[in-house]
């Protein structure tokens, strides 16, 4: 179903992005992967090419609009089109607001919100011109539920959820561009590694003991959305571990 389609995936050096690149490639898509840790993308490149897939690797900092533009330009130059955009790059340095970790707030806003805006802005003109495309935004359960120490993180993910709905309303009916917002619960990835607030150590340890979702579970959810018939727009996928209460 995805044979010949071109997919762009941000934050692809590990976790959900890495697993999604593998899943879409196995389904027949050509994949363009970007991340700040370009060295880690080489392992992904080796794995995909070994399986006979086509891949473009590029160093990418989604907080720089010029990076996002040049990434999409490179994809267009190589393959001439963009069919799927997976806005996966994200950070989660949770902290209590009173600790005033302003630098971390700025970083989350830059990556989690501006990164999605910049990448989408780079890809959307190509989707509009051919009246076809699919945008996948990785939000979170935190895009629906606010929790202590998640004030700013939740705000960024609420923004992604709202942005997804706004894009759907503007582009789905008029431009035949589908939009899917994926909202994972606890996933076994490197996301908790950015937490510097000492008072959250117990939370981090608890989340590691939980039977969390695997990155592949989210990749499979994305695959379900993009492989749905063109008249079907899977708008939201909320996916939690069975053992997660909230």
Looking at the structure, the CATH topology is Rossmann fold
Query: Over all CA atoms, what is the radius of gyration?
Result: 17 Å
Structural class assignment: alpha/beta
- Give the class-level CATH name: Alpha Beta
Average predicted local confidence, pLDDT:
94
Q: Looking at this structure, what is the CATH superfamily? A: NAD(P)-binding Rossmann-like Domain
Strand order of the largest sheet: 3-2-1-4-5-6-7
* N-C termini distance: 35 Å
The total tally of domains equals 1
Which CATH architecture?
3-Layer(aba) Sandwich
Secondary structure tally, helices: 7
User: Percent of residues in beta strands?
Assistant: 15-25%
- Overall shape: it is globular
Please give the share of residues in helix: 40-55%
Low-pLDDT parts are: none
Give the H and E element order.
Answer: EHEHEHEHEHEHHE
In short:
By secondary structure, the chain is an alpha/beta fold. It is built from seven helices and seven strands.
């Amino acid at each position: 179903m995805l044979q010949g389609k071109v997919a762009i995936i941000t934050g692809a050096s590990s976790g959900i992005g890495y697993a999604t690149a593998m899943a879409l490639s196995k389904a027949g898509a050509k994949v363009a992967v970007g991340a700040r840790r370009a060295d880690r993308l080489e392992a992904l490149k080796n794995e995909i090419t070994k399986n006979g897939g086509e891949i473009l690797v590029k160093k990418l900092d989604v907080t720089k609009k010029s990076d996002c533009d040049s990434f999409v330009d490179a994809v267009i130059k190589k393959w001439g089109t963009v069919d799927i955009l997976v806005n996966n790059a994200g950070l989660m340095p949770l902290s209590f607001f009173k600790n005033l970790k302003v630098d971390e707030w700025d970083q989350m806003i830059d990556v989690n919100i501006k990164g999605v805006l910049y990448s989408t802005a780079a890809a959307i003109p190509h989707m509009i011109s051919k009246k076809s495309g699919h945008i996948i935004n990785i939000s979170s359960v935190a895009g629906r539920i606010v929790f202590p120490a998640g004030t700013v993180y939740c705000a960024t993910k609420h923004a992604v959820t709202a942005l997804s709905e706004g894009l759907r309303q503007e582009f789905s009916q008029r431009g035949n561009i589908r939009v899917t917002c994926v909202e994972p619960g606890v996933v076994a990835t490197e996301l908790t590694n950015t937490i510097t607030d000492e008072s959250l150590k117990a939370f981090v340890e608890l989340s590691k003991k939980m039977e969390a979702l695997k990155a592949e579970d989210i990749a499979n959810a994305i695959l379900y959305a993009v492989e749905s018939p063109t008249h079907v727009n899977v708008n939201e996928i909320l996916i939690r571990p069975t053992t997660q209460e909230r």
